[in-house]
Amino acid sequence: TLGQLPADTRLPWHRVLGAGGRLSLALGTPSGDEQRARLRAEGVNVTNNRVDMTRHGWRPMEHSG
Fold first, then answer.
1. Buried b (16+ CB within 10 A) or exposed e, 24-36
2. Chain centroid to CA 62: how far?
3. Which distant-in-sequence residues (6+ apart) come within 8 Å of 24 by Cβ?
4. Residues 12, 64: Cα–Cα separation, whole Å
5. What sequence ranges are listed for the domain Methylated-DNA-[protein]-cysteine S-methyltransferase DNA binding (predicted)?
């Protein structure tokens, strides 16, 4: 699981979201606050504990080359 990753991991764990763009990490916890800060630093808006997947979601056809 993501919680078992080494502290120095380079995996962009903050981009892992639940169904419908829901952030799984609780607001007000160190890891939840870190996730929100990292997403916002990338220009991703977080509203009501969700990310707008229409705007920020991965679209495989655009990345297939």
1. ebeeeeeeeeebb
2. 20
3. 16, 17, 18
4. 20
5. 2-44
**CA-based Rg of the chain, rounded to a whole angstrom?**
13
Identify the residue whose tokens are 């607001």: 27
The encoded tokens of residue 21 equal 């763009």
| Model confidence, pTM | 0.78
Give tens-digit pLDDT for 19-52: 999 998 999 999 999 999 999 999 999 999 999 9
Rounded Cα gap, residues 42 and 44, in angstroms: 6
Q: Domain segments of the chain: what residues?
A: 13-50
